[in-house]
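testing teh design pipeline on a random one, pls ignore if ur not involved
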């Protein structure tokens, strides 16, 4: 992301109601980093085409999980990068979850392979013996076939613990994980992957199911709340996540 791009286009903040005042810290941090930004609504995303979206997925958000699913299921908006964050009830930034991207289920094979190519993740698959890990209770056969078609060896895990065991045996080139696993969320799996030098930079893509019930949204919000720091991230700590996405 060049400085000119940052200047010309805005980052939008979704899931935060303007009247709540919860976006003030986030807005001030972004401004300090030179990013134009504003609180926005879902219905304006397709026409506005923001540089990216900062999305509150905390229990205090305005349906953050629903917004995530809608944005990523709409061909007009699904390519817009989303950075999920946890904002406290008063707007303190408690956590950031920099996953590589999101795909909705059932996976669109052509779109999946197109995005992986855009990210530069398919260039070496046929030259080198590279493994892609799929973490899912169902195995996601269609996804596996699509990724295998461009040269990856597919390895499957059914829980987060099994995924970590497989990664420890041999580093994986990329990972796909259901949002909710039997023993942890994809965001907790991401946190664990980042703890080890050999897997710290492994891209993890999250698979979103077709519909999330209200109970599932609340459960995910609570799960994420358990991962966040008790202390507010500093401006420098938060902006570090944006710089790594440039």
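output:
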């Amino acid at each position: 992301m060049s400085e000119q791009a940052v200047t010309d286009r805005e980052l939008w903040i979704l899931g935060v109601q303007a009247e709540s005042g919860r976006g003030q810290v986030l807005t001030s941090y972004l401004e300090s980093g030179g990013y134009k930004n504003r609180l926005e609504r879902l219905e304006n995303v397709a026409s506005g085409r923001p540089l990216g979206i900062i999305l509150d997925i905390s229990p205090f958000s305005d349906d953050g999980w629903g917004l995530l699913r809608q944005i990523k299921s709409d061909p007009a908006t699904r390519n817009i990068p989303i950075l999920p964050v946890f904002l406290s009830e008063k707007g303190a930034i408690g956590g950031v979850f920099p996953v590589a991207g999101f795909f909705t289920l059932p996976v669109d094979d052509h779109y999946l392979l197109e995005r992986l190519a855009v990210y530069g993740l398919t260039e070496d698959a046929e030259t080198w013996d590279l493994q892609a890990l799929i973490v899912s209770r169902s195995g996601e056969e269609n996804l596996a076939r699509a990724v295998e078609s461009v040269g990856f060896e597919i390895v499957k895990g059914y829980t987060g613990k099994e995924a970590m065991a497989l990664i420890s045996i041999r580093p994986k080139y990329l990972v796909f994980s259901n949002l909710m696993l039997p023993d942890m969320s994809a965001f907790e799996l991401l946190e664990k992957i980042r703890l080890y030098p050999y897997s710290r930079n492994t891209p993890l893509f999250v698979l979103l199911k077709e519909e999330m019930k209200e109970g599932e949204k609340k459960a995910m919000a609570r799960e994420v709340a358990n991962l966040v720091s008790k202390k507010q991230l500093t401006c420098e700590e938060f902006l570090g996540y944006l710089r790594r996405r440039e």
